[in-house]
Design goal:
Blueprint: E1 12-15, E2 18-28, E3 38-45, E4 51-57, E5 63-64, E6 67-78, E7 81-86, E8 92-96, H1 101-104, E9 114-119, E10 122-127, E11 131-139, E12 152-157, E13 162-166, E14 174-178, E15 183-187
Antiparallel strand pairs: 1-2, 1-5, 2-3, 3-4, 6-7, 6-9, 7-8, 9-10, 11-12, 11-14, 12-13, 14-15
Length: 190
């Protein structure tokens, strides 16, 4: 059983006899109070999508839920549902756009390393790899002679995600993005 301080985003925990996915964690250190940090977690019920905000002390014990992660590839969009295909047994997993709207900004048809999070037989979330490669759809023209560490400019990627990129990067470039920090990591190797 992990402590609240060890829980990461997208973890599944049992809370009030329900399985919850942790979507966001804010750590705070109250002034003048012994006992250390507090962790405010925004959690979503995997069954009904209900939202719960709860604060835990750093050393409070939480129970991880029983979940399975399956390797998947993004297949297609059907209305509000994103359909992912299991890479091993080709099972389709449908996820509502609203439950994975943060993750889909990093997902294209050729994104590798995706995992479907399955709880009690139902897909509830997508785990992203630490980095993905996406193509820049639109950015200001590149500046000749701009150094790699100089100023940045916004770039809109093929999925709609907007990240800051160095001035020498152009529309059409394939770049690598850190999925945790939503940050440019460099050009993708072709």
């Amino acid at each position: 059983m992990p402590k609240a301080s060890e829980i990461k985003k997208h973890a599944a925990v049992e809370y009030n006899n329900r399985v919850m996915i942790v979507r966001d964690i804010e750590r705070s250190v109250p002034q003048g109070r012994s006992g250390g940090s507090l962790y405010r977690m925004r959690m979503y019920d995997v069954v009904n999508g209900g939202k719960v905000d709860e604060t835990f002390k750093a050393d409070e014990m939480l129970t991880l839920a029983d979940l399975i992660r399956r390797p998947v590839v993004f297949s297609y969009i059907d209305g509000d549902e994103y359909v992912f295909m299991d890479e091993e047994d080709y099972t389709p997993y449908n996820l509502n756009k609203s439950s994975i709207e943060e993750q889909v900004l990093f997902v294209s048809e050729d994104t590798k390393g995706l995992l479907a999070v399955i709880v009690e037989g139902s897909p509830v979330s997508i785990d992203l790899p630490s980095s993905v490669e996406l193509v820049i759809e639109d950015t200001a023209p590149s500046i000749k002679g701009a150094s790699a560490s100089a100023r940045t400019k916004p770039a809109t990627l093929s999925t709609g995600l907007i990240v800051q990129v160095p001035e020498h990067i152009s529309t059409g470039d394939r770049i690598k993005i850190n999925t945790d920090e939503k940050k440019f990591m460099g050009r993708a190797e072709s």
